[in-house]
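In this notation, each integer encodes one residue's backbone shape. One such record reads:

___
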Amino acid sequence: MRALFLALLFSVSFSTFAQDNPVVVMETNKGTIRIELWADKAPISVENFLRYTDSELYNGLIFHRVISGFMIQGGGFNADMVQLSPYEPIKNEAKSDLPNDRGTLAMARTNVVDSATSQFFINLVDNDFLNHSNETASGFGYAVFGEVVEGMDVVDAIAGVTTGRSGVYSDVPTEPVVITSVRRAN
């Protein structure tokens, strides 16, 4: 009877674990970052990120914008600053209960609310000014869709690299910070 109870307990625990949010492993030339994606809170953004992940489109791209005390941004350019041809833009899922806090992953976008494609950023500090405050273009905010669960030391190391200009772009690492791969961990 005890064996049956343990078997049932294990199957319930396993099925609960199997339905958890996806986790991705981002390998960089600075180390490994594990990120939980919040499919339960931002399903469109997570599906979009996983589309790029599963297509291996992030592999070989760089963190092209690094601003210490703010964020690190990647998912758009290779080391030669050639931009990825992204899929179509997605709906902005920014919500006031999903703040841009330290360690969270958010979708980068232009001034157009629903313009996010492949680019993302990791917040280095609590960036309250990026949060959703209202439905206007200036108040909509940036959609948070995950959080670093391991490797914040790697994120901080990336934040500390020397940056400069590359063509029209500023805050570009002088030595490329390469995303060698992004893959699902579960």
Remarks:
- The beta strands are 23-28, 31-37, 61-67, 71-78, 104-107, 120-123, 144-150, 163-166, 169-173, 178-184.
- The CA atoms of residues 104 and 147 lie 4 Å apart.
